[in-house]
Task: structure prediction
Amino acid sequence: MQTDVIRPADFAAQAAQFILQHARTAIAERGLFRLALSGGNTPRAVHAQLARLGADLAWNRVQITFGDERCVPPEHTDSNFRMARETLLDVVPMPAGNVFRIRGEIDPATAAQEYEDKLAAVAARFGEPRYVHDLVLLGLGEDGHTASLFPGSPALDEAVRNVIPATGPKPPPQRITMTFPLLNAARHVAFLVTGADKHALVEEITSGSTAYPAGRVHAEAVTWIVG
Ligand code: 6PG
Result:
């Protein structure tokens, strides 16, 4: 696993450029860029820059998944889909069929299985044992959680399924999350982290600590973009 840490002067713009570089390479090499979006608030500014700097990207060649989703309807203010729709998906020419929304409004186990099946269908088309993202974006919580993989959660031990229901202390508690097997199958993972209060945690994790869920993301390549 290759780990890099970037501390750019302009966090959002350089994170967007990083994503666009991966997009253009994936589209050139495989005709499709499979990107997992992260939740929370940090992505908002990155999405705005992505829409601005990526106006000429072949968005019809981008497939969007979500690292996690809160178990709320898509129009709820807590919905990660709503945040992504407002800041990116409605701002760029993204075909609706390219966006794989996790249905947070239905029974969590059903929504997780539905998402599992959706990813499996694409993986089968690519001859992959499990869906391979070109790039997974992840956030970092102050407790070291990432996606909705929280410290002490049984979700951390999932070794087979790609998407499962999970609960956590960050409201709203009921969520659906990608698991380590799916995250670690990605070609590249980029953690997008802002806030001085997280810098020490980033240092600990990038120095090799596996004490936190974010420290157990071991994809082929991991880049930390820290603002
Ligand atoms: C979520 C996110 C979560 C988030 C971190 C950081 O649904 O809450 O997936 O993992 O990325 O908690 O959140 P902020 O970007 O808001 O600090």
